[in-house]
Write a structure and sequence with these properties.
Order of helices and strands: HEEEEEEEEE
Number of strands: 9
């Protein structure tokens, strides 16, 4: 039987585990920190933090939803050329086959689900 998962704000806002530089980074030094959560499914769930830097995303294989907890970044959509500034309180959906770019300008922390 599945159980409720609760992360108190002290955990969500606390120290995360270092995970190295974001693969594919081509600007800055986007060091990652994470807190994966086992939700009992194949979905990836957790808290993610990234220091300033940028990287391309090409034809993503899955869907990601995320809620930005803190920081700032620019997301650029390759298909339209649209640039979106994201910051605390924003909700983002990156669908399968999306291509674009992340440019983190202030360390971003987000709650995410990838499925």
């Amino acid at each position: 039987m599945a159980s409720l998962i609760h992360l108190p704000s002290t955990v969500v806002n606390g120290e995360l585990t270092p995970a190295g530089q974001r693969p594919g980074a081509d600007s800055g030094d986007p060091q990652l920190r994470t807190l994966p959560v086992d939700g009992g499914t194949d979905a990836q769930i957790g808290i993610w933090e990234c220091r300033p830097g940028g990287w391309p995303v090409v034809d993503r294989p899955n869907t990601e939803t995320c809620y930005i907890l803190e920081g700032k970044a620019t997301l650029t959509d390759d298909e339209t050329g649209t640039k979106v500034e994201i910051s605390a309180g924003d909700f983002v959906v990156l669908p399968p086959e999306w291509s674009g770019r992340w440019d983190v300008t202030e360390t971003v922390r987000k709650a995410y689900t990838i499925f």
